[in-house]
Design a protein that fits this description.
351 residues; two-stranded antiparallel ribbon; globular; 2% strand; 4 strands; 2 domains; mainly alpha; 15 helices
Length: 351
């Protein structure tokens, strides 16, 4: 990979490093510091939005492992988010388990459910695999509603705020922001490094050509199952994090459309790129906020459409964004960012 003049990679460790130059370290530290001090200057509304963004980034990282790296289509990812959220809420509310134990168990439970869903992945792929994951969404929702004694049915169940012993409760947006921020950073670190390991390279080989990968000695069943498990663990952790941020969880929080939005976030951000999952979530959440801000303005201009506008405008913006990126930037924002960096490295020369 091309580098700025004066920087040379003299060993494999430096060549494989995510952050290579002092300038990159500087920008990374600046970004992390800015995110750390954000709760000191942002309102509660934007803190809740940031928590939602961090939680969604974790879930989309898991979906990116499935679709972007392993090439396994999933349209029921939000059901796995629900599994994690309900597992954590039930353990904390019904059994009195600490959040710090329920949080990883939520990821494991979602991983096991995802593994069960992904078992047919060895035999089928493409549209048929998408249909199975779509059906899995309705199966999970059916069980959540049916076992109302455990899950609260259509009414939902409480998800208490995390505590550190009896002295400190993470019960404010400012405190919960840092928990969500740290979780998102660690999940990003894990997802980025997973793609650079042997399983990550096996995922990519399966995505590109599963027959050739099998001929090369890659165990398709093992790695497809692993992709479903790891991707589902991310979803479960996201569900736990989002459930405890609002203090209540119900089936209405997990509509099928959220799975479609997550796939759209990957399309916009760029599949197969860890950065793409982050950029996609931020971009889609951003245009959703823009749509919300435009509703009063358009309502004053066209008062007759004000009734259906709040629901329709966000969907319209989302659809237009997907169509735009599929036509003009099919490889997503991550690829555009890489192109900008490549141009910067050789500027002002053309070659």
């Amino acid at each position: 990979m091309a580098s700025l003049a004066g920087y040379y990679n003299v060993n494999y460790g430096k060549d494989m490093a995510v952050v290579r130059t002092p300038a990159q370290w500087g920008w990374l530290i600046f970004l992390l510091v800015a995110l750390v001090i954000l709760p000191m200057v942002a309102s509660r509304q934007y803190l809740f939005l940031a928590i939602d963004v961090f939680g969604t980034i974790i879930a989309v990282h898991g979906l990116n492992i499935l679709i972007g790296y392993a090439g396994l289509i999933s349209l029921g990812h939000v059901a796995l988010v629900a599994v994690g959220g309900y597992t954590s809420a039930i353990l904390c509310t019904k059994l009195g388990v600490s959040f710090w134990i329920a949080f990883p168990l939520a990821g494991v439970s979602a991983g096991l459910v995802g593994l069960l869903i992904g078992l047919p992945a060895l035999r089928i792929k493409g549209f048929y695999l998408a249909a199975i994951t779509l059906a899995a969404h309705f199966v999970v929702m059916f069980f959540i509603i049916t076992f109302y004694g455990l899950t609260g049915g259509v009414y939902g169940i409480a998800a208490p705020a995390p505590t550190l012993g009896d002295l400190f409760a993470i019960d404010t947006p400012e405190r919960y922001y840092y928990l969500a921020f740290l979780s998102a950073v660690l999940s990003t670190f894990f997802a980025k490094n997973l793609a650079r390991t042997k399983p990550g390279r096996a995922f990519v080989a399966i995505r590109d050509n599963d027959i050739a990968a099998e001929v090369m000695g890659i165990d398709l069943f093992q790695y497809k199952a692993l992709a479903f498990f790891v991707g589902s663990v991310f979803a479960g952790l996201s569900g736990s994090l989002l459930a405890h941020s609002v203090g209540w969880i119900s089936p209405e929080d997990f509509p099928l459309m959220r799975s479609v939005w997550m796939v759209g976030m990957l399309i916009v951000g760029g599949m197969g790129h860890c950065l793409g999952a982050i950029l996609g979530v931020v971009f889609i959440k951003g245009i959703d906020q823009i749509a919300t801000a435009l509703i009063p303005i358009i309502g004053r201009i066209f008062p007759n459409v004000m009734i259906s506008l709040p629901v329709a405008l966000g969907q319209i913006f989302f659809a237009l964004a997907i169509m735009f990126f599929l036509v003009f930037e099919p490889r997503g924002l991550a690829h555009r960012w890489e192109s900008i960096k490549a141009s910067y490295r050789i500027w002002p020369f053309r070659h």
